Amino acid sequence: MKRLRFLSIPYWVWMALFVLVPTLILIILAFSDLNIYNPGSFRFSFINFRIFSESYLLKALQNSLSLSLVTTLICFLIGYPVAYYLTTLSASVRRIWLSLLIVPLWANMLLRIFAWEKIFTPGSIFSDLTGIEIDLLGTVPGVIVGMVGMYLPFMIFPIFSVLEKMDPSLIEAAKDLGASDVNVFRKVVFPLSIGGVVSGVIMTMLPAMTSFVLPARIGLGRINLIGNIIESKFMKEVMGSGALSINVGSLISLLLMIFSVISFIIVTRFDKEGETLI
Amino acid sequence: MKRRARKIRFLKGLGIVFTVITFMLLYVPILLILVLSVNNSTRSYGWEGFTFKWYLTLFQDDIMRDPIMNTVSIALLSTVIATILGTIFAIGIHSLEKKHRIRMVLMNNIPIVNPDIVTGISLMIIFSILSLTLGYFTVLIGHIFFSIPYVILNILPKLKRLDANLYEAGLDLGCSRFGGIWRVILPNISTGIIAGALMAFTMSIDDFVITYFISGNEYMNVSTWLYAKLAREGRTSFTPVAYAYNTIIFILTLFIIIFINRKNEKKGRTT
């Protein structure tokens, strides 16, 4: 099939156009006063870095890190046992459970967030139907529960896919050699599943860190994440006063890109073929 | 005894409990949307009786016609184009030497790992540099862009299982280069292509973040339409028609999944 190699060339070009070029422009925007809508002469400067002295940005960075870490940790603690439990089921039952985990992801994200909003509002249709009153709107726990509800499947799938491929006789062998359940997990199962855990952590943490609709709605705008700042810089402030708001937004996005590059390097360490990503 | 010894008991026990929690976290919001779609109330503060009228309104009225048409047409078109391109690229990537192939697969994974907001902004920037007006066309390109990597990831494992000599044999027997792809390679990777296409379709029909950044002021899909209602008009509830739409899409995808499962099961039995 060597003679079909040329078919991959257009993909290089395509990716260069949509990944490489925008990244370079983003870097230029972040370090200059270039006007994206009227590109002309521009000067390199650190003028956009003034944003880092703004307390709202620092607060958003801090929120993004802490909320996404807590969300990821909870997702891991819940997701790992779930993924393991699924592997103990028979193949046909397993397929049904897996499908049931995927299906909710196909409901509209905004409506799901809106449903959480209702659930967290006392006196809403949710409390009318169930008699349960939950008052978490505008609070950090509310945002975290919402995020766990949104991103949990992204933790379960990659872990499941490595656990499923694991040879069950390994566990049997460890047990025959006298290992306790805890030690089987600690010394055999967990180390072998680390690749899935890494993918799961990143597939949960990055979306959580960058979400903006969920914190805006469930947090009632009180809890801003870095995604909210980026949205505001690119979509809202442009029409108003900030001529350089896109440049400032680019700088913040660059920060986010550094995170995703680090994540990317870590994922590819464990999973060269990207098998745990789908 | 032996069989039971294969399992880690405490992990399985936790797993059962957490599976229940997981399903509650995932399905309570979904069920609430379902309830809202048959609730006889426009403001959805309380339960006011069962009705199907929102489903009828969805088909008779044009409140949501444009956003729905936009969403469906982009989803269909981008799926077809991304599947064709993704298949071609996947065959090209698979034919490379190992070192180059791994590099290509890594590159292919960038958009998958990248947060949607970064992808959205990158696309927005390249479109503005190219002076393209944000709208239907840019959204189409964007959806093709984020779908292709998933199509490729679904096809590559199928290609790996295909004996490369088959293609060479096809050529020896008189197939042209592309005839060989059509007659030998494609039939063998068709399940991967279908899986990739379905994935692309579901990603496109539900996308909000990327579309939001590259759609401009005129074009709206269902998600950006809903967001505009919430953000700009400061609403605290949608028209229940939106819940009806979502429920229909939801049931449709449910059927697609059941269909695929049935097919897989049949295949599992015969082979």
Q: Explain this structure to me?
A:
- The complex is a heterodimer of chains A (278) and B (271).
- Chain A contains 12 helices and no strands.
- The mean pLDDT of chain A is 87.
- Chain A is an all-alpha fold and 278 residues long.
- In chain A, helix 2 (55-87) packs across helix 11, helix 9 (194-210) runs antiparallel to helix 12 and helix 11 (226-236) packs across helix 12.
- Helices cover 79% and strands 0% of the residues of chain B.
- Chain B is built from 12 helices and no strands.
- Chain B has helices spanning 2-5, 9-37, 53-60, 65-94, 98-113, 116-129, 136-161, 164-172, 177-206, 209-214, 222-231, 240-270.
- Chain B starts with a helix and ends with a helix.
- Chains A and B meet through helix 1, helix 2, helix 3, helix 4 and helix 5 of A and helix 2, helix 4, helix 5, helix 6 and helix 7 of B.
List keywords for this structure.
heterodimer, A: 278 residues, MetI-like fold, globular, B: 271 residues, mainly alpha, 2 domains
Quick structural summary:
The complex is a heterodimer of chains A (278) and B (271). By secondary structure, chain A is mostly helical.
Topology:
The complex is a heterodimer of chains A (278) and B (271).
Chain A: H1 9-30, H2 55-87, H3 91-102, H4 109-119, H5 125-130, H6 140-165, H7 168-176, H8 181-192, H9 194-210, H10 213-218, H11 226-236, H12 245-270
Chain B: H1 2-5, H2 9-37, H3 53-60, H4 65-94, H5 98-113, H6 116-129, H7 136-161, H8 164-172, H9 177-206, H10 209-214, H11 222-231, H12 240-270
Helix pairs in contact in B: 2-12, 3-12, 4-7, 4-9, 5-7, 7-9, 8-9
